[in-house]
Specification:
Blueprint (H helix, E strand, L loop, with lengths): L1 H11 L11 H12 L1 H4 L3 E2 L6 E5 L5 E7 L4 E9 L4 E8 L15 H12 L2 E8 L3 E8 L2 E8 L5 E8 L18 E5 L4 E4 L4 H4 L5 E8 L7 H8 L56 E7 L3 E4 L7 E10 L5 E3 L3 E4 L8 E4 L5 E5 L4 E6 L7 E8 L4 E7 L2 E8 L2 E7 L6 E6 L6 E8 L2 H4 L11 E2 L9 E6 L5 E10 L5 H7 L14 E7 L8 E6 L7 E9 L5 E3 L3 E4 L5
Parallel strand pairs: 1-3, 18-20
Antiparallel strand pairs: 2-9, 3-8, 4-7, 4-9, 5-6, 5-8, 10-11, 11-14, 12-13, 12-15, 15-16, 15-17, 19-26, 20-25, 21-24, 21-26, 22-23, 22-25, 27-28, 28-31, 29-30, 29-32, 32-33, 32-34
């Protein structure tokens, strides 16, 4: 290999440099040619079978060379642009017959010119301009000096290249299946499920592979190199060639040429190349994400934004060579957020509302007439519920409600109120809501602070039970109901019976005990008792008290279970 490098260097130099002694005029000419970046600006040997990474300055061409020693040799060249389109071409130069570097005496100037013409004549084999990963392949290439020239006219850019004279089947890039597309198999508001066919490198060649999924909102990527460039040089996860196969550019000083003449125009050779690591993981960024998932070919991307278009790319990497190949990417738009239906509230009319567990419900109240105050009555049927009220976008109220609550807000001409109800974490919530500008006419019945039913154990018999409950200053109608229940009464049945929004109209006539009116201006005396008769010995009974307001709306007190005595 060292001999090959010496031969290649010999071929790249003007013939005058091969002589043992140079005239002063030729020496000056030789120094001028060294300064010519068209020939000597970071020219490099491309090693056979190794992917190398390099860098291009804008509008500054680079040339790379390699030798094919025998005719009818298979040849593959692959160039991968990273963050900018490239112009590149591959050409072939015939090897001069004189390549030994041995000479005696001063060379004939005419012979020098002849050899220089031979060296510069070349045949263009392939050219390309763009940002695709492009290939040149030939199953039978002639021997000679091959030159790869690259140029970036858009900006400074990274790129990768690979050349080999081994058969195509031995190339280290992972193979793609016959259908290399990435498919979207499931689409949600915040998730997208992707699937792709496995690489034959894993299923047929039994080589270790890893898939990486890239998600972004801008466009699809044609190579993992382009992803690395997008994420930035410091953050890049780069698949480096294995130790021992990465060759640096020519070290001209090592071959006896003075370093002060090289790379002065932009300080290119003075800048060290970035070190490539096997697994340098990316810092997360908001606009692009890369996730490596092993050898699975099904993956669900989560935590996406609803109604947003995303681009998805899949790259398969060969664990032995650390090289990657891109599948044909896809894109998809996540589903929209479920539109919230807004319920219109009518002034003075009770509305039943059902809210799913951890769900939310929106209601709107727009009074027709001008008003000074707006009153909201909220009756939570089971668990606590959170209520928020906004007027013309401004938050006026945020409370958690259990049982019955009344909220009175200052009015505003032509105001519109948006009510948001949020359910409980335990389960679904039910409530009744009334919004009105005339609270005295449509109010819910007033309740005492304590809505429990008190049972007197000493007054309990085999056929009766005596209970008491508190009232209010307002005169209201109270109805009491009874229902026999099992001794192990609990669970779902108990929860249904605890629904305080269910009125007397949901009860059987046989369960009704009596209805009566009572009130007291003195709240300490606002208490009533009642003895329920006709009960069976040793049985459990569920007792409910309903208070019915002037508008016909009823509210149930907390249920009470009592058990008659077995022996009297």
């Amino acid at each position: 290999m060292v001999l090959l490098h010496w031969c290649l260097l010999w071929l790249l130099l003007p013939l005058s440099s091969r002589t043992q002694k140079l005239p002063t005029r030729d020496e000056e000419l030789f120094q001028m040619q060294i300064r010519d970046k068209a020939f000597f600006h970071d020219s490099s040997v491309i090693p056979d079978g190794a992917e190398i990474s390099s860098y291009l300055f804008r509008d500054t061409p680079k040339r790379y060379f390699f030798v094919v020693e025998e005719d009818n040799t298979p040849l593959s060249v692959i160039v991968t642009p990273c963050d900018a389109p490239l112009e590149w071409k591959l050409s072939l130069q015939e090897l001069p017959e004189e390549a030994s570097g041995e000479s005696s005496g001063d060379p004939d100037p005419l012979e020098q010119q002849k050899q220089q013409v031979i060296r510069e004549e070349s045949t263009e084999l392939f050219s390309y301009k763009g940002n695709d990963v492009e290939y040149f392949t030939s199953s039978s290439s002639p021997s000679g000096l091959y030159q790869l020239e690259l140029l970036s006219t858009e900006k400074d850019t990274h790129f990768k290249m690979y050349a080999t004279t081994t058969p195509e089947s031995d190339q280290p890039y992972p193979e793609l299946p016959y259908d290399p597309r990435v498919d979207v198999t499931s689409l949600g508001r915040t998730t997208v499920t992707l699937a792709w066919k496995p690489s034959p490198t894993s299923s047929l060649l039994r080589q270790p592979i890893q898939y990486c999924v890239v998600i972004n909102k801008e466009h699809n990527f044609k190579s993992l190199c382009a992803v690395e460039a997008k994420l930035g040089a410091d953050d890049a996860f780069m698949m480096a060639p294995k130790p021992g196969v990465h060759f640096s550019p020519f070290d001209f000083a090592h071959f006896g040429f003075p370093p002060e003449h090289l790379g002065k125009d932009r300080g290119f050779l003075a800048k060290p190349s970035p070190k490539l690591g096997r697994h340098v993981y990316l810092r997360p960024r908001a606009d692009i994400q890369k996730i490596c998932i092993g050898n699975k070919n099904l993956f669900t991307v989560s935590d996406l934004k609803p109604d947003t278009q995303y681009y998805f790319d899949v790259f398969v990497g060969n664990g032995n060579s650390n090289m990657s190949t891109a599948y044909v990417g896809t894109f998809a738009r996540t589903k929209e957020e479920a539109k919230q239906t807004t319920v219109e509230l009518k002034d003075g009319k009770v509305t039943d509302v059902f809210v799913k567990r951890k769900g939310a419900k929106f209601l709107r109240f727009a009074p027709v007439s001008s008003h000074q105050k707006v009153t909201f009555f909220v009756h939570s049927c089971l668990d606590a519920v959170q209520i928020q009220v906004r007027r013309d976008g401004k938050l006026l109220l945020s409370q958690t409600v259990e049982d019955i609550r009344q909220f009175q807000l200052r009015g505003k001409p032509k105001a519109k109120y948006l009510i948001r109800l949020r359910g409980n974490k335990k389960g679904a919530s039910m409530l009744k809501l009334l919004a009105t500008t005339k609270p005295s006419k449509h109010s819910f019945p007033a309740l005492p602070e304590d809505t429990r039913i008190k049972a007197f154990d000493k007054l309990r018999t085999c056929a009766s039970a005596t209970v008491a409950w508190l009232g209010t200053r307002e005169r209201n109608k109270f109805c009491i109901y009874k229902k026999e229940v099992a001794d192990d009464y609990n669970g779902d049945q108990r929860r249904r019976d605890q629904n305080r929004c269910l009125g007397p109209d949901t009860r059987k006539k046989s369960e009704k005990v009596l209805c009566k009116y009572f009130h007291s201006e003195n709240l300490q005396k606002a208490v009533t008792t009642e003895t329920i008769r006709g009960l069976q010995p040793g049985k459990a009974y569920l007792l409910d008290v309903y208070v019915i307001g002037h508008g016909g709306h009823s509210v149930k007190y907390q249920s009470k279970v009592v058990k008659t005595r077995k022996l009297c």
